[in-house]
Specification:
By secondary structure, the chain is of the alpha+beta class. It is built from four helices and two strands. The protein has one domain. Helices cover 51% and strands 12% of the residues. The protein is flat.
Length: 83
């Protein structure tokens, strides 16, 4: 850690994300995944659906919706700090 990988990734993301149907840059995944997975799923969907709010009720539903969105759209997803 500490060499600016997130900063570089974010700069590249900002440069190219407009080329995709949707995009999401999620930070600190390792720490956040210990908590509310549903919130992470909501954030991911919010990005890949270009700001549309999509209510998911549970993690399994989130998985299904995310799979559908990823298979039918050209999206850029960056997950920062993943084990």
């Amino acid at each position: 850690g500490g060499v600016g990988k997130t900063t570089i990734a974010k700069a590249i993301y900002n440069e190219i994300s407009h080329q995709y149907d949707g995009s999401s840059f999620l930070i600190n995944i390792k720490e956040r995944s210990k908590g509310d997975i549903l919130q992470l799923q909501q954030e991911l969907l919010h990005g890949i659906l270009r700001g549309k709010n999509f209510k998911i009720n549970n993690v399994d539903e989130g998985i299904s919706v995310i799979k559908r969105c990823l298979s039918s759209n050209r999206v850029l997803v960056v997950l920062d700090d993943v084990d």
